[in-house]
Write a structure and sequence with these properties.
about 300 residues; mainly beta; 7-stranded antiparallel β-sheet; 5-stranded parallel β-sheet; 4 helices; 16 strands
């Protein structure tokens, strides 16, 4: 694992499209759980702290699609196996018993004064990350790597459309909370049922239309994202199509269909659409960088 020189972008981003701003270096942060909060029956907020956070954290406003790599304890050994830097541009795995277990997460919040980084977790019955989050308590350890870069959404649109499932809630919540003053945000979010709805407050001067899509409204054997996809397909594009930016994230297959609808059916240009497949049905630790979305 090596570090490569990449360019930084000086915001605010008024280019009309998502821009990537690379950090000068990759940073490993060994953190400790400070406290845990259950937001809904299936959604848990975990606040992390650590001495390394005294050096700061690159939390950038309206970089809603940022992600870090979280490393979890090996269930067999209890050890966290992650990368550490041994020299310039050189990273190797820790020499402790166990395997590396890692997942990507969007940073939900950063409190510089308290030196606290917040990650949100969807709680379900399977998966290494969900099992850790379900049992997490103050004092537990987690290693967070990155981010390598900040994914800056453009700030020069009047209307934003956020689309996703509960895995995209941190990113869409930040879009709602950090959108430029005067903007109108429409959010369509698929969740398990009515009990999973959250109170999301827009930034001052921002208008919000919040639409919760309940997964229990469709047959249980439907593919992930079907309820969300049908809702998006039957909804007119909010606002003026020339002054609209769309951010969508969630299950990869569903996101590909949503992206096709946005680009082909609604005719939105590529620069006005940012779609990411955060997870893929049947695949653990899906690498969203490998998503094969048609750019046409």
């Amino acid at each position: 694992m090596t570090r490569r020189e990449r360019s930084a972008f000086t915001g605010p981003n008024r280019t009309g499209e998502q821009r990537l701003s690379f950090q000068p270096k990759l940073v490993r942060r060994d953190l400790t759980v400070a406290r845990v909060e259950d937001i809904t029956p299936r959604y848990r907020r975990i606040v992390l702290t650590g001495e390394v956070l005294a050096e700061g954290y690159p939390f950038v406003r309206f970089a809603c699609n940022d992600h870090v790599k979280a490393y979890f304890p090996d269930p067999r050994t209890g050890h966290i196996v992650a990368y550490h830097e041994t020299g310039f541009d050189e990273w190797i795995l820790d020499e402790v018993e166990g395997e590396p277990f890692r997942r990507d997460y969007t940073p939900r919040a950063w409190d510089a004064a308290a030196r606290e980084l917040t990650l949100d977790f969807v709680i379900h019955e399977h998966g290494i990350a969900a099992a850790w989050a379900r049992a997490a308590e103050p004092g537990d350890q987690l290693v967070v790597m990155g981010p390598r870069a900040n994914w800056l959404l453009p700030e020069n649109y009047s209307h934003y459309w956020g689309i996703g499932d509960e895995t995209a809630l941190p990113a869409i919540s930040r879009l709602i909370e950090e959108a430029p003053a005067g903007a109108h945000v429409t959010a369509m979010i698929e969740i398990a049922d009515a009990r999973e709805e959250q109170a999301l407050e827009p930034a001052p001067g921002v208008t919000l239309d919040l639409i919760w899509v309940h997964r229990d409204s469709v047959p249980a054997d439907e593919e992930p994202g079907r309820a969300l996809l049908e809702t998006v397909r039957h909804a007119p594009a909010p606002g003026n199509a020339d002054d609209l930016f769309v951010f969508a994230a969630g299950e990869t297959t569903a996101m590909k269909s949503i992206r096709d609808h946005l680009r082909r059916d609604l005719g939105l240009p590529k620069r006005q659409v940012a779609v990411d497949g955060y997870w893929k049905r049947g695949i653990a630790d899906h690498d969203h960088h490998t998503n094969d979305f048609d750019d046409g």
